[in-house]
Design brief:
- The protein is of the alpha+beta class.
- The protein folds into 2 domains: about 20-250, Glutamine synthetase/guanido kinase, catalytic domain (Creatine Kinase, Chain A, domain 2); about 260-360, no CATH class.
- The chain has 11 helices and 12 strands.
- It has helices spanning about 50-60, 80-85, 130-140, 175-180, 185-195, 230-255, 260-275, 280-295, 305-315, 315-325, 340-355, and strands spanning about 25-35, 70-75, 100, 105-110, 115-125, 150, 155, 170-175, 195-200, 215-220, 300, 360.
- Strand 6 and strand 7 form a beta hairpin.
- It is globular.
- Residues about 1-5 have low confidence and may be disordered.
């Protein structure tokens, strides 16, 4: 197969170094807002949805730097474009009608999902302040041109009581292989839930780690009703630090007591990444997870956490579809007419281009 350079995402937010990246892949902050003069989306009539979208689009055009945003009607978005935006966390349910993103993709505003607006921003690692400041600054600017529904008693209003108050939700995308492989993850998840946070898998159920595929989890706030924004940020930051400490402690236990077992897992994952010709997404997620575990245990060198975290986005179907559409590849004759196998072939190449830099520690 003819190859082109496939590492073309060096400037995106998920490809940046950040604090605590050995455990926390990324952070998201989201604000829910609803226009004061319209019913909630579930009670829209006639052209309410179109009017809300037009008002929001117009408000963005009046901001200080309107050229730093791009607006799109989702009904005009092709299937692969929708996949990419969903993979980056910018799209929600299928009911949304519009999306506005910054040109660098680090922030977005989803229109007519369960709320009229969902303003979100992302950061690599455990970094809450930067995405919070971005969504807060955007919220403040928008309020110069639109009025959001709010009350003295409940704060910002939403169709869900759990989205009222500050109407801010935070989430952490974490990697917990040591806790998962040791079968301690079920009790740990229960502990997190008892603290008032939600937990979900990112890629579905796996097998290697006896839990979530690749041992990747989403930890999120379940309510924005209690406390102000600063208190809520402090709570999830403290939780993030606690999760990092717990995973690192269990990781050290493996390094000290079961190095051969883990080393074997890492070597097998490396071999698959290095020599596979075709890789489906589930296998790829497991491989990336095992390599990251090996890196954080000190078994491999030559690569960094942010590069492996970035791979989680780069091997997704939407991102590969974009590569196939915008680049020229010469596929083997027996797969050239099979879209699924072409995607698996390209996924293997993307993964190999990263693991070629890996060395095993002596």
């Amino acid at each position: 197969m003819g190859r082109k350079k496939v590492n073309d995402n060096t400037d995106v937010w998920y490809n940046l170094k950040a604090p605590d990246q050995d455990v926390v892949v990324s952070t998201r902050i989201r604000l829910s807002r609803n226009l004061a003069s319209f019913p909630f989306t579930s009670n829209f009539r006639n052209d309410d949805g179109d009017r809300v979208q037009n008002i929001v689009f117009d408000a963005f055009s009046k901001l200080n730097n309107p050229d730093s945003y791009q607006s799109m009607s989702l009904k005009n978005l092709d299937k692969n474009g929708s996949k990419i935006l969903a993979e980056r966390g910018l799209l929600g349910s299928s009911s949304a009608t519009g999306l506005i993103t910054t040109t660098d993709g680090v922030s977005g505003c989803l229109i007519n999902d369960k709320d009229h607006l969902k303003i979100s921003s992302f950061a690599s690692g455990l970094e809450l302040e930067a995405p919070f400041q971005r969504v807060k600054a955007l919220d403040d600017e928008l309020q110069q041109f639109v009025q959001f529904a709010a009350s003295r008693d409940f704060g910002y209003l939403s169709p869900s009581v759990y989205n009222t108050g500050s109407a801010m939700k935070s989430s952490l995308y974490v990697h917990l292989p040591s806790l998962s492989y040791s079968n301690e993850i079920v009790g740990f998840i229960k502990e997190i839930q008892e603290k008032g946070f939600g937990v979900s898998d990112v890629f579905g159920v796996g097998s290697l780690f006896n839990a979530s595929l690749g041992a990747y989890y989403r930890i999120f706030t379940t309510s924005s009703l209690k406390g102000n924004e600063v208190e809520q940020l402090g709570n999830i930051f403290a939780l993030g630090k606690y999760i990092c400490e717990f995973e690192r402690k269990k990781r050290r236990d493996y390094a000290d007591n079961k190095p051969t077992v883990v080393h074997n897992i890492v070597v097998r994952a490396y071999s698959l990444a290095k020599f596979s010709i075709l890789l489906n997404l589930r296998d790829c997620i497991d491989i990336i997870s095992c390599l990251k575990w090996g890196l954080d245990l000190g078994f491999i060198t030559g690569i960094e956490d942010f590069e492996l975290n970035s791979l989680l986005y780069r091997v997704q179907s939407g991102h590969l579809g974009y590569l196939l559409k915008t680049s020229t590849f010469s596929f083997e004759e027996d797969i050239v007419d099979n879209p699924e196998l072409k995607e698996d072939r390209l996924r293997a190449i993307v993964l190999k281009s990263t693991v070629d830099k890996i060395n095993f520690a002596s």
